[in-house]
C-alpha cells in the first residue's frame, strides 16, 4: 500500500511540475525574489553564456555568479531558436528529471535508515516497545519522501543513523531473552564502538581529487575568457561579501542596506563565522547520527546563507521525512506548519505592496523574511532537541 501511494504521489508531483513548465510562464515565477536569486537565476546564466559566446568573460558586468561548468551544461539550453521556441523548456525538463532522481535517492536513503533502525532495535528487544510509534509515523515518512523541489542532488548522503553507542551495551541478565547470540552482540557492539581513520582518509583523498578535477574543468571552460582567480572573486567572494542587496526571502540584504559602511566588515565576519562555530559542537553531539547531522547542517546553511530561496528550504524539508520516527514528538509542529504556509502566502503580497502598489515599504517585506528565518530557527532547535530526547529514551529503556 505504501509503495502504491508513493508512486501515485510521485506521478502527481511530476505532473504538477510539467504543468508549471508548460503553462507557468504567465506566473513570472522566474522573476520572483523568493524563487530566483543572483546565484540561481536562469536569466543571469543566459547572460553569462552570451558573454562567453562573444569571447568575453562570463563574469563581466557582475551578472553571472555561478559555476563555469553550468555554462557548459545548461548554457546552450537558454538560447532562443529562430523558429520562436525557447530551449528553456528543455532546461526545465532536465530540472524535473534531476529532482525525480533526487526523490528516488531520498527514498532509497530512507529505506536504508529504516532497515538499519529495525536491525538495531531488534538486537535490543525494543521492536515491540516502539511498534506503535513506527505504525503512527510510517505514513508521514511516505508522504515526506515525495518532495521533489530539490536543487543540490550531491548533498544527499547515505549511511545508517544509529542510536548512541551506550544504547548497545546490553545487560547480561537480558541476554538470554534475545534472539541474537552473544557473539553477534559482542561483534555488533565492537563494530559500533570502533572508530576507523581509514574511511576518513579515503574521504579526504576523494574530496581533494574531485576538487582538483572540478577546478581543472573550470579552467578549461574559462580558457582565454577568464581565469580561476576571477571565478573565485565573482562566486565565493560575491557570496561572502554580500555585494548584491536586492530583496530576497532572507534578512541580510536589509541588514547590510541599513548598517554603516565602517561596520560592514565586522558584521560580515560575525555572520560568516556563526556557521563555523556551529560545526564542531553539533558534530560532537550528533556524531552517532551522521544523516541527521547532515540535515541540520543543510538547514543552518539555508538560514544563514547570503542569498536564500525557497529551494533551500525544500531541500532540508525533504530530508526531514527521513527522521519521522525520531521526531514524532517534536513540539510546535502546528505552529511551524501553518507558519510556513503563512509566510509563503504573505511574502508575495508584501512584495507587491512595496514594489508595485507603493502603499508599503521595505519593512513590510522584511517582516516576512524575519518571520521565515525565525520559523527555520525554531525548526532546527526543536529537531535537535527531539532527537536528543529520543536517544535519551532509548538509553533509559535499555538501562531500566
TrEMBL record:
> How does the entry describe its membrane topology?
Multi-pass membrane protein
GO CC annotation terms, alphabetical: GPI-anchor transamidase complex
Q: Which chain regions cross the lipid bilayer?
A: 6-23, 89-108, 203-223, 262-284, 291-307, 335-356, 362-385
| Cellular localization per UniProt | Endoplasmic reticulum membrane
Q: What is its main location?
A: endoplasmic reticulum
Kindly tell me the pathway this chain contributes to: Glycolipid biosynthesis; glycosylphosphatidylinositol-anchor biosynthesis
| Pfam families (UniProt xref) | PIG-U
- A Gene Ontology biological process term: GPI anchor biosynthetic process
Q: Does the keyword Membrane apply?
A: yes
Print the keywords alphabetically: Endoplasmic reticulum, GPI-anchor biosynthesis, Membrane, Transmembrane, Transmembrane helix
Sequence similarity: Belongs to the PIGU family.
Protein's recorded name? Uncharacterized protein
